[in-house]
Design a protein that fits this description.
Elements (H helix, E strand, L loop, with lengths): L2 H24 L2 H29 L5 H24 L2
């Protein structure tokens, strides 16, 4: 490939990138990304609750896991509370 082909490929890539950014902005990508992160966090909460409940069933065998899951659950709840306090 010569210099002209490289330049044409570069222009095509820049044009494609510009179109992608414009479409992302038009579709309100920031809002959709925030919604996706909320849905992800809220979908993890039931799984985490179930994991904690299972680890409480056999505390001697899973003491380390229970401690870890309780810590993660506390951190997740703090993040969600802060997020709700900031979001209108």
């Amino acid at each position: 490939m010569g210099g002209r082909e490289h330049a044409a490929a570069l222009r095509g890539g820049v044009r494609l990138l510009g179109q992608a950014i414009a479409a992302w902005w038009r579709d309100d990508g920031l809002r959709l990304g925030a919604a996706l992160s909320d849905y992800t966090a809220f979908s993890l909460a039931p799984v985490l609750s179930l994991s904690v409940a299972i680890s409480k069933a056999k505390p001697k065998q899973h003491a380390g896991w229970r401690h870890l899951l309780l810590f993660i659950g506390a951190e997740l709840s703090q993040v969600l509370c802060r997020r709700r306090a900031v979001t209108p």
